Amino acid sequence: MILRLLQTLVGKPLQRHQTEAATLPNFEALAILSSDALSSVAYGTEAALGVLVLAGSGALKLSIPITLAIIALVAIVVLSYRQTIEAYPQGGGSYVVARENLGTTASLVAAASLLIDYVLTAAVSLMAGTQALSSLVPQLLPHEVSFSLILLVLVGWANLRGVKDAGRLFAYPTYAFVVMVALMAIAGVLNLAFGHGFHADPPPPIKALEPLGLFLILRAFSSGCSAMTGIEAISNGVKLFRAPAAANARLTMVVMGVILSLMFFSVSALGYAYGIAPNPNQTVMAQIGGRVFGEGSVLLWALQIATLLILALAANTSFADFPRLAALLAKDRFLPRQMGWVGDRLVFQNGILFLLLAAGLVIVICQGDTNMAVNLYALGVFTAFTLSQAGMVRHWWHLKGEAWLQHSLMNALGALTTFLVLLVIIVSKFNEGAWSVVVAVPLIVLLLAGVRRRYREVYGAMALPEGFRANLCLPKRTEPIGNRSIVWVPSITEPTINALRYAAAISDHVLGVWVKSDEEDAAEIEAAWIAAVGINPGLELRIMESPGSSLVSPFVDCVEAEEDAYPELLQTIVMPMAIPRKPFDGLLLNQRAINMRQALVDQQNRVFTVVRYYLNK
User: Fold this and answer.
1) CA 609 to CA 322: how far, in whole Å?
2) Predicted pLDDT at 594
3) Which of 10, 65, 339, 384 is the most exposed place for a label (fewest CB within 10 A)?
């Protein structure tokens, strides 16, 4: 009953060969991977104006040079990441590039920064989307938190259904937003040419609270840099593109950069021309739309609804990249292994669920107010930018292939530029909350390193001694006892050997079942089995492929097939389980064993035995 309900909500399980069907054409990939970057147009200008207005209405005109500086920075970052895609066609996010070129510590700093950024991006996008709607319908102001949480659940549900479904769902709102901003820009230019006139309206008089100086300008610039979050997503998601994936990703990166720059400049220029100032009850985008389309017009509603949708769906960039990064960290043993498990819909479902909880917590803590989170989440992405581009400089230096010097200089420019911006963000925003990210990043790095260290200790405690040979033999019996044992073999370790010994002691025949993942090699598994166990007629190893994502289902199918083949015999399922000394170790061990037990204990005539191995560390 529960399984059918989950399949109705999330979709039926997909087989691994359907992964290729889940890749996307450029049109859909641009929507799913650029929604965060493109949607930031809705609040990038407003973030800069919100700082400039502290120096009075006369300082708002500086939004134009700040916008041009950010656009130049966008161009540098886009060109730099095109080279990253060329060098890492399998997907080259900051974590991968830093790990391979700068070492473990740098890679963990990049990973920690991006994990924070993805959570904040999801939360800020959804809260800003809610504000876009409340600008039209003020009655929604008391319900912004609830509405943001509903949007969060909907985006998470769409991602749990799988990438292909999400790409189709997100393409329409993304392009609707692009079209509405383009219409607003065209209508605004026509209005300026034939009605308003090419002169800037003075903004409403606002008293200065702070003097206009370099520090305030840098603060406004760093706030406006929130428009650059999400640019890295395409280099992370190269595998989502159809073949030739790298070439398509490089082209899409440029298209995204051009669209982002044009939209960002259009909003800032129109805001300056119409004398728009920040208003706590109405977003800058809504104010511009009201001047261009007319207050209460259908086009204004269309603009704000499109803004709501893309801001809500911009969180999808985080839902695409956070689980993928968590899976990479899990593969390298910096996070629990279950963060790398692929669900039945061929997505990293545990990463998606964790992001749902984390982003929901941020929304509740911020109570729908984006100001604090906007001040924080550009810091993480510029840390990742800097480490990624610095890693690429080292990559080209060691490779020294064709045009390596030009490649290296381009990435060096990107690294230097983003590092300077990072320093500006830290200094200018430190007292506005950036200190929390500065503190959180090293704490997360220590946590990630601690997980890997504990994995090494635990697996070292379970490892077989050098040259170990169990020489397992089934006892000689005058009469068969009518029992067969099926042993789950996740690896060749002390717990597995203990489980095999137990099975050999109680059975006429022992079948060890190893369901291999895509990364494992059957020949290596068999060689390790023979080296540890030897060759025995009553002790059989069966290596099984998993056509779907689950490693549990093939084992369950094997048990049921054995029961059908030998209905007269008692089947005993033997499960090795390492018992840790520390409570936290439970997150690192036995998770598949727990799932396996839940899947197998529902039959009354089936014997399920857990063979415990107590760790000494």
Assistant:
1) 37
2) 66
3) 65
